[in-house]
Amino acid sequence: MTLLNAPVYDERREKLVRASLIAAGALVALLIVLSFAGFITGHGWLFSNLRIEHRIDRFLTDLEQKNFADAYGIYVNDKDWQQHPEKYSGYKLGRFTEDWTTYSPVGPITSHHVDKSVTDGSGPFGTTVIVGSTVNGNKRLFLPYQRSDGTLTYPAPHVFAY
Q1: How far apart are CA 129 and CA 47, in angstroms?
Q2: Where are the beta strands (DSSP E) in 65-138?
Q3: Residue 9 — pLDDT band, cuts 50, 70, 90?
Q4: How confident is the model over 75-94, as pLDDT tens digits?
Q5: Going by C-beta distance under 8 Å and a sequence separation of 6 or more, which residues neighbour residue 28?
Q6: Are 60 and 135 in contact (CB under 8 A)?
Q7: CA proximity to 155, closest of 128, 137, 125
Q8: 109 has a pLDDT exceeding 70
Q9: Are 48 and 125 in contact (CB under 8 A)?
Q10: How far apart are CA 22 and CA 24, in angstroms?
Q11: CA-CA distance, 52 to 48, in Å (whole number)?
């Protein structure tokens, strides 16, 4: 191919290439902004902890409404736990209820707000997510969520300031 028989200029194709490059750049910029925004606001990279925060919110709402059976199902990550209670004989519903009412470090939960979460453990998204909440107006409660099996534990291995 020489200059004398060069291909015909295709304006439509050039516009498509330019639009594709602009869209790819905008997508990369949006991904970067969302990554850092999630991290800075305390909801994990790319807001990856929002689902877990919602689960903790549901757990605390059930405790607040004294719906201990549903809260226990969230705690052990088994909504059908009543079908096979022998599986949870080491930590029964009665003991769970006592732990979250009588022996709770924050007392019976009357109000709550999920504030922030941090990733803990190894790997890019960690093995545990610790969710910090404000309960009963001014008390802090930190609940660890195990990514491996979806269960909650207490107490948290460490707390964080916010």
Answers
A1: 12
A2: 112-120, 128-135
A3: confident
A4: 999 999 999 888 988 999 99
A5: none
A6: yes
A7: 128
A8: yes
A9: yes
A10: 5
A11: 8
- Sequence-distant (6+) residues with CB within 8 A of 49 are 38, 43, 117, 119, 129, 131
The pLDDT value recorded for residue 3 is 66
Closest CA to 39 of 48, 27, 31: 48
The mean per-residue pLDDT over the stretch 121-141 comes to 87
Domain coordinates in residue numbering, the chain? 3-41, 48-146
Closest CA to 98 of 73, 63, 70: 63
Residue 1 pLDDT exceeds 70: no
Which ranges constitute the DSSP H helices of 3-162? 11-41, 50-64, 68-75, 93-99
For the chain, the residue count is 162
Could you give the CA distance from residue 127 to residue 130 in angstroms, rounded to a whole number? 10
Q: How far apart are CA 133 and CA 106, in angstroms?
A: 11
Cα distance between residue 152 and residue 75, in whole Å:
5
Q: Per-residue pLDDT averaged across 4-29, rounded?
A: 91
CA-to-CA distance for 51 and 34, rounded, in angstroms?
16
